[in-house]
Amino acid sequence: MNASFIVIAAVVLAVAAWWLIDKRRTSHVRKLPTLAQVTREQLLPQFQVVALGAAGSGKTALLASLHHELQTPAGRGYYLTLADPSARELTGIYLQLADPGQKWHAGTRAGQEREFVFTCVSRSGHQELARITYVDYAGELLTEIQPDADESVDRLQAYIRDAHALLLIIDGLRLYQYFAGQPQGAIRLEEAISTFVRTAYRASCPVHFVITKWDLLESIGADDRDRLRKVRDLLLSNPHFRSLVTEHSRDRIIRLIPVSAVGSGFARVDEHGHVVKQPTASAKPQFVDLPLATVIPDIFRQLELQTSRTARETLLAEMDKRLALGAGHWLSALKLGMAGPTGAFIKNALGTVPVAGTLGVHGMELFVQWLSRPALQRYDITQEQLLEAGDVTQRLLLARHTVLDEFERRVAALESILPESNLSDGPRM
């Protein structure tokens, strides 16, 4: 009896010792992602947006307001998610921004850089569609000599070189000061334009000049279109800005987007020239979704402009062939993506286009989807037909198609309401 007990006890102790050793051995081993996680991440196109603006120009306020507006799919077919602690940070900034009893947020310090990785998710089925990395940079790195700033400047230049879209923030307060005849407005505006034009010349991606604090400019015109026309004419009166538009609008997208993080009537400029909150006002952000909603369509429009007509026609002919056989064949062609003959053709056709090289395989697949939209409409293939033809991956492609359509409608609405926002047709003076 005693001998048996000793044997059992020895076995138990041996098993326990083995378990402890194995636990220690594996405790520092990084847990590998599941196949589903890897597959989902690999299917997501990646886009990088770089925002540049001086301290106090409204960059951070715009970002916080954009996050607030797009964190749910209210009135849209998509929404944006953002991981903590970034989501909590932007929520806190917006709550401070929208509270008339609190001071304005301090914003981005000179030389500071921050990355916010948004995931675009479809309302239908909550499919993850794309990652958009928003890099928030203080523009003083490009205008002021700072000690030990070489590394930060080099990093910023690398971000600009690899950007899929550039947001250059023009402070609406400086425009207000200019139109009010205040000298500091003209000086600061000239400084911003000179810096941004140099930056935009070096970039190969679409460029959005974003006018913040749009609500402060209500007095300069009868409506948004009248005000934007006056701002556009002012910017184009600068020879450097006009040269940028003239030189690059043929094959690049250059846009002018007004935004207000708080909306009409929330703030005013007091007698000392400071922007102050109205005590009883409520924040109603205006146009804040546009800088991101226009990014993907503008990237793809620019790719289309820079791709030869022969290449586009050949690609569309291939997609037409697939569509003639039915929705399932079109989806299969996209599902195979860059691996097959269509993918080889895309790489060949777009290999010399600067932005194309940074999009990656699934970014290029998304471009093919975008390019194929007119063919889908021509064959009158419905979403129901696509759903019937689709497996899980094909449903993801369908969700992307639906959201791309919505982005395009948003761009069309912007250009219908504010045609002056599109500078790519060249100066209108």
How would you summarize this macromolecular structure in one to three sentences?
This protein is of the alpha/beta class and 429 residues long.
Average pLDDT rating = 80
CATH architecture of the largest domain: 3-Layer(aba) Sandwich
Strand order of the largest sheet: 2-3-4-1-5-6-7
Q: What would the CATH topology of the largest domain be?
A: Rossmann fold
Provide the low-confidence segments as ranges: 7-39
Question: What is the overall silhouette?
Answer: globular
Keywords:
alpha/beta; 3 domains; 429 residues; 54% helix; Rossmann fold; two-stranded antiparallel ribbon; 7-stranded mixed β-sheet; 18 helices; globular
Write structural notes for this entry:
By secondary structure, this protein is α/β, with parallel strands linked by helices. The chain folds into three domains: 1-31; 39-293, 3-Layer(aba) Sandwich (Rossmann fold), CATH 3.40.50.300; 305-415, no CATH class. Helix content is 54%, strand content 13%. It has 18 helices and nine strands. It has a seven-stranded mixed β-sheet with strand order 2-3-4-1-5-6-7, sandwiched between helices. Helix 13 (309-324) packs across helix 14 (327-336). The longest helix has 26 residues, at 2-27. It is globular.
